[in-house]
Amino acid sequence: MGKLLSVIAIATAIGIAGCGASGDETTKTVTAEVTAPPISRAQFIERADNVCGKVQEAFKPFERELSEAEGFRELEDALENVLPPVEKARDQITAIPIPEQNGTGAEAYASYVTKAVALLEQLQEAAEDEDRSALETYSEDLRVAGARAQGAAAAYGFQVCGQ
């Protein structure tokens, strides 16, 4: 199980762990887009990079805990510690209004962030259920979502979120 947990730690450590969710957050994003004044691509990048930097710092203490977890219970506990700052970051990222011009990359990144957080939540449930197969599936899905988020962030011009 140790190797699987290392994959999870690597996937979450890439800086996308704090971003993703369910339809409720999507509704909040739409509301924010309608009521918030438009922002530029540079402003979106600055705000999102600020959030990503904070979540990366908040995650550092848990990276070792995740990578060293040896059983289902330890993994569940580690994810329980990781999820609150990640969910908070997701909420902050999805609350940033999408730029009216050149917003496609921002939307793609926010979508991948949402997916990553949902997968972390599913990983925690799989650990609670002691479902190794689900852990492997969600871990691979998280790795893919992380790579896509990283690619979208780099292509859009993020400095912190794309690392």
Question: What this model shows, in words?
Answer:
There is one protein chain. The chain has six helices and no strands. Residues 6-33 have low confidence and may be disordered. α5 packs antiparallel against α6. 78% of the residues lie in helices and 0% in strands. The protein has helices at residues 2-13, 23-35, 41-68, 72-95, 104-128, 132-156. It has one domain (2-15, 22-30, 39-156): Four Helix Bundle (Hemerythrin (Met), subunit A) (Up-down Bundle). By secondary structure, it is mostly helical. It is elongated, with a radius of gyration of 15 Å.
Number of helices: 6
Shape: elongated
Rg of Cα set: 15 Å
Task: Name the poorly predicted regions.
Answer: 6-33
Question: Would you summarize the structure shown here?
Answer:
The chain is mainly alpha-helical. The chain contains 6 helices and no strands.
Tag the structure with descriptive keywords.
163 residues, Four Helix Bundle (Hemerythrin (Met), subunit A), 78% helix, elongated, mainly alpha
Layout of helices and strands, plus pairs?
Layout: H1 2-13, H2 23-35, H3 41-68, H4 72-95, H5 104-128, H6 132-156
Helix pairs in contact: 1-3, 1-6, 3-4, 4-5, 5-6
